[in-house]
Amino acid sequence: MILSGPSGVGKSTIVRRLIDESHGRLRLSVSATTRGPRPGEIPGEHYHFLTPQEFAARREAGDFLECVEVFGRGHWYGTLRSEVLPSLQQGIWVILEIDVDGAERVLEAFPQAVTIFIAPSTTEELERRLRQRGTEDEAGIARRLEVARHELDRRQLYTHQVVNDRVDDAVTAIQTILSDHGMQA
Ligand code: 5GP
Fold first, then answer.
1. What separation, in Å, do the N-terminal and C-terminal C-alpha atoms of the chain show?
2. Ligand 1, atom 4: closest residue by C-alpha
3. To which H or E segment does residue 119 belong?
4. Which residues on adjacent β-strands are paired with residue 157?
């Protein structure tokens, strides 16, 4: 299952709830990134934090299912094969929280993936949440809003779109989509 949506839309909260309530049937693919940890982020749990050199070496070794440089001159993010394939082989669903470029690449390899786009109720609401999070400076917020506009333009790529107005409603909507695709809760 691929879940995308603009930065600040509340994906991480939704993902945590989905996994907590899945009775072990859904596992998170922990991405690798070259960005540094935010306060409270735990290596190996939120991301595998790699140096640019480590990331490049793993890329050359073919360890990634997909990887992209998100935010232009910013940081690299990627899905490690080792985070996805062993679970799928065991019949466990894997959730990939990745951007639209990454989603396109994963769909080439796994056209059967369930794709869900999380949208904000309004772009003003998204901006408010990004500011409230307090993890970005003004330039960072502006860059993320610019990327968000591009992502919102491409949301038609996704089979399902869920507006994150209230987290409870968004989680329930996604659980329904997953059970319609055969995932038993
Ligand atoms: P953040 O830095 O806020 O954690 O994430 C920034 C963006 O990177 C989000 O849009 C997120 O979906 C995307 N992202 C996180 N992990 C991956 C990944 O493994 N691959 C791709 N393509 N994008 C990712």
1. 15
2. 7
3. strand 115-119
4. none
